[in-house]
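pipeline/complex-builder :: batch 7 item 3
reading input block
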Amino acid sequence: MSGATELVVDVEAISDGVILRPKGDVDMARSPALRTKLTAALKGNPARLVLDLSEVPYMDSSGLATLIEALQTTRKNKIKFIVCNLLPRVRSILEIARLTTVFTVVENRDEALKA
Amino acid sequence: MNEPHIHMRILSRPELMAPVRAMLCELASRAGLNETECGHIALSIDEALTNIIRHGYKNDFDSHIWISVWELENPKGVRIQMDDLAPHVELEKLKGRELDDIRPGGLGVHLIHSLMDSVHFSKRPEGGMRLVVEKFHAHVAANLHAHVKHNSQA
């Protein structure tokens, strides 16, 4: 589990949207930074928003709440929202909260770009 | 109850959650719990701290939270007690939301109940709330759950 307070989020433009790749734990201290990046990405009204969680070893319910907020916005604006590269602990919390079927979750980035 | 192995007071600051859960993970590992079990403890404590800071202290980041930890020998596991000075909450309100109701928030208490083997909220007579959770090593927990199920069916 990473201990830094700041959450770094890489942003990459793709042909039909954007990929966000947060780096580090997403908890109460850091979920606001992810929310800010997601909100900014959604303001551009992309056709596709990919959240690559390959560098998020840990997420709590604050992080889940941030994802659900983004999901609600994407549904309202007909934006494809795809989550990929879940590490075991993050996949586990999504499963416990029964959210794996609510989000479009795919294995990797290639699948996310085709979904 | 014996003296806790660890007793500490922290400020109600979100940035302290990462070091607290790392410390509890390490202690749980030392007590013989496996990596998954340690992860469950870390997440549960994280959720409890989030609830205290956000709902109990209304995001006042200079309030106090007391954490006590016991390593349990027989059966192997850990007991963690978290005390605060937030206003009392009616115990029946401390339930997670229905999971089919997809919306942000309300998952913390559900996660704590899902991940820990015992969960007990109470009002502290001196003010504030207390949460005591226990997590046991897997085969002990399986026996415990089977015992509870057997008794409830009897």
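note: Chain B is about 40% helix and 25% strand.
queue -> next item
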